[in-house]
Design goal:
The chain has one domain (49-236): Glutaredoxin, CATH 3.40.30.10. The protein is 22% helix and 18% strand. The protein is built from five helices and seven strands; from the N terminus they run H-E-E-E-H-H-E-H-E-E-E-H.
């Protein structure tokens, strides 16, 4: 079977960056599962943050949309969880998560920057980033300063589109314990905003205008260097 071009490019990049195709530690290889229907979970978002707090008050910025720094990002939509821990990482509680859920032109939510991350199960560098984000409590420290994070998972351990079980395994893994919005991106929509297929992919969005502030490939060593930079940006906004 001929693999998609993006898969070939990612595999080649992985060999250069030292990514691994081994499964998550302590988590069995994910079996393909049918995607559940998108149905908002009543009560799952109550008292758990400000995601979606402004989506009903302001229309999303009109195009044209772009894929580079300074451009307005398209209102992408995904299936996943706005609060994965509250949903118990349960695929049956998937809901639609749109970028418009984070749009906040009036600054009412307290969020200033949206950090979009694209990862794959086969990528050991991605796992290390999530592990260090968890161990350093990045979300707990920077969310009060105005940071929201949207994690996306686009491929499984075998370079095929990620399935609901993959997202559950990724979010619930003890080393990750994800509490910020986490979604599936089997079509790799976020990949359109980067010049390379290297992972992990990170992008910062100013939620007041939904413009792209920064695009970063890979992670700093140590990863705390990147989040220290993000903290400095938040403190200046």
């Amino acid at each position: 079977m001929k693999l998609p071009i993006v898969t070939v490019l990612i595999a080649a990049t992985c060999s250069l960056l030292g990514c691994s195709s081994s499964p998550l530690t302590g988590v069995p290889d994910a079996e393909p599962a049918p995607a559940p229907s998108a149905s908002p979970t009543a009560g799952a978002n109550a008292g758990a943050g400000n995601v979606g707090a402004t989506s009903s008050r302001a229309a999303y910025p009109a195009g044209p949309f772009g894929t580079t720094r300074g451009a307005t990002i398209e209102n992408l939509s995904f299936l996943g969880w706005k609060h994965p821990d509250v949903a118990g990482y349960d695929p049956s509680k998937f809901e639609t998560v749109r970028l418009s859920d984070f749009y906040d032109p009036d600054g009412l939510s307290g969020v200033k920057l949206l950090a979009i991350n694209a990862s794959a199960v086969w990528c050991s560098v991605c796992r290390r980033e999530y592990q260090e984000m968890h161990s350093n409590d990045v979300y707990g420290k920077l969310h009060p300063l105005g940071l929201e994070i949207l994690g996306t998972l686009f491929e499984d351990n075998a370079f095929f589109p990620a399935q609901p079980q993959d997202l559950q395994n990724w979010g619930i893994a003890k080393a990750h314990a994800v509490t910020f919005p986490l979604v599936l991106d089997p079509g790799f929509k976020v990949g359109a905003y980067f010049d390379s297929d290297a992972t992990p992919l990170n992008m910062l969005i100013d939620v007041r205008t939904m413009t792209i502030v920064q695009i970063t490939m890979g992670i700093s060593d140590p990863t705390s260097k990147y989040w220290t930079q993000v903290q400095g940006m938040l403190e200046k906004m």
